[in-house]
Amino acid sequence: MFWESALRKRNEMLPLRRKQLIQATLEVIDRVGLADATIALIAKQAGLSTGIISHYFGDKSGLLEATMRQILRDLREDTMRRRGELAQDSAAAHLRAIVDANFNDSQVSGPVMKTWLAFWSSSMHQESLRRLQHVNDQRLRSNLCCQFLRELPLPQARQAARGLAAMIDGLWLRGSLSGTAFDADAARQLAYEYLDYQLAKKSDAAANAATT
Where is the HTH tetR-type domain (predicted)? Predict the structure, then answer.
């Protein structure tokens, strides 16, 4: 019974310690940047030993990957929640929900934005991070294309999805580097205007067909 109780307590502590370390990683990267975010600093911020980081994540790259997986998990869950709560099942509503999730507070806070930038930079040199970035990029474009496809032919839907994905990333990047508070409302509005413009092409095509 003693060993069973000790094992149960240990297993209960695992998610808590991982959460502590991921939060500490965000805070340290926000304060000093990725290059100076040492294992010792992160461990001190979390109030844990450096050995715990090595045990759970291996090294700083493993910790960055775990942190980004959590950020992406938060993004995915927020997107699903928003889409599940929609009052109407239209392509425009789903597309707006995807845009809203990408510009939600959980994705545009200072620590998260700096960690995103560190992740993008590191993904050019580390295969595991590059794969993670590829999966995230493909997921976004696939979700966007799926909704555009409800209103547009496949070639146009793919093009619109690529354009909106690029706009989301571009608006986020410009906002993160502006040196001022991120204006999420302005970014969302620009993305809305783009997706509405793309969806309007169906009406234009129908009107042209009717007059010929």
Answer: 15-75
